[in-house]
Amino acid sequence: MKFIDEVEISVLAGNGGSGCVSFRKEKTRLLRRKIPNGGDGGKGGDVYLVSDKNINTLTYYHYHRVIRSEDGKNGKNNFRKGKEGKDTVQTVPVGTRVFDRRTGEMIVDLADHHQSIKIAEGGSFGLGNYRFRTRRSNRCTLGKPGEKKKIFLELRLLADVGLLGTPNSGKSTLIRQISSAKPRVANYPFTTLFPHLGVVNVNNGKFVVADIPGLINGASKGVGLGINFLKHLERCSILLHIVDISPEIQSSIIKNIKMIDSEIFSYKSSLFKKKRWIVFNKIDLVKEDYEEIASKIVQNLRWREKYYTISAIENIGLKDLCKDIFDYVENTKIQ
């Protein structure tokens, strides 16, 4: 399935039905007269958006750019009211933000499962002529048009933990090892083309991890793929910076870490300020003392947060890492 996280759509609520002009003939001793008995029209259908945790992309709206509700029916004789138009209820992924395209203002952030909002109001119904029966009336009113809007949907995935790193640092391998997510893994850059979510079970709890495409130099200016998906990390409690510590690139590790720091800061300072831990990956390829190498790197960087040494492919150090992540996420939720 194609991953779509932004889309513009038109929303058309149903028009209200018009009132009816109708008379009932009544004969009295002295004269014949007409009694108004035209019914009201039916209200137009509303349009609702409801968030659903079982959906993770806006692909449906990429192919269905117009959402409309049913019009109300016109009133009928004998005081019969027109049928109301059916409401339209559309589901979107949890984490979808809805913007008014005309003003640019955010209407709602659907951050919880089964959260709903009426996005467009159906038109009100017209009145039949029985409403004006104080006199012999040929008068009725027309139904009102339904609300019409252009809205912009933007998906920001809900995850507790976000994975950052350069291409081929082992982010996808890590998420495959600790969760049931199965992103593509290969020995070349950009095997991850869109975000993946994985649920990690720890003891009696769990947390959600998001993996995005790797960042490269110039990402904040649109180079590469990762910058397009950094917004999906904005809701995370903590970020893990995955660093390849294998011998062939050890000379460029500090440069790569600083590059990603710079790209994140250029993208959004609030994301840069998030809690972040460094995770040195691929220690299985290091013949030297990898703990000493990692220690020298963090000292050079003057890194004050936690750091870990793991091998995602060999499942080394993952248990302790996941336990610490879970404890941090749970403590953050309590606060």
TrEMBL record:
GO biological process: ribosome biogenesis
Annotated localization: Cytoplasm
Gene: obgE
Binding site for Mg(2+): S172, T192
Obg domain span: 1-158
Main location: cytoplasm
Pfam families in UniProt: GTP1_OBG, MMR_HSR1
Function text: An essential GTPase which binds GTP, GDP and possibly (p)ppGpp with moderate affinity, with high nucleotide exchange rates and a fairly low GTP hydrolysis rate. Plays a role in control of the cell cycle, stress response, ribosome biogenesis and in those bacteria that undergo differentiation, in morphogenesis control.
InterPro entries: G_OBG (IPR031167), GTP-bd (IPR006073), GTP-bd_Obg/CgtA (IPR014100), GTP1_OBG_dom (IPR006169), GTP1_OBG_dom_sf (IPR036726), OBG_GTPase (IPR045086), P-loop_NTPase (IPR027417)
Protein's name according to its UniProt entry: GTPase Obg
Gene Ontology molecular function terms on file: GTP binding; GTPase activity; magnesium ion binding; ribosome binding
Keyword presence, Isomerase: no
CDD domains associated with the record: Obg (cd01898)
SUPFAM superfamilies: Obg GTP-binding protein N-terminal domain, P-loop containing nucleoside triphosphate hydrolases
Record-annotated OBG-type G domain positions: 159-330
Cofactor section: Mg(2+)
Gene Ontology CC annotations of this record: cytoplasm
Binding site residues for GTP: 190-194, 211-214, 281-284, 311-313
Species annotation: Candidatus Riesia pediculischaeffi
Xref: Gene3D superfamilies: GTP1/OBG domain (2.70.210.12), P-loop containing nucleotide triphosphate hydrolases (3.40.50.300)
Statement: the UniProt record of this protein carries the keyword GTP-binding: yes
Keywords: Cytoplasm, GTP-binding, Hydrolase, Magnesium, Metal-binding, Nucleotide-binding
EC assignment: 3.6.5.-
Subunit structure: Monomer.
Family: Belongs to the TRAFAC class OBG-HflX-like GTPase superfamily. OBG GTPase family.
EC main group: hydrolase
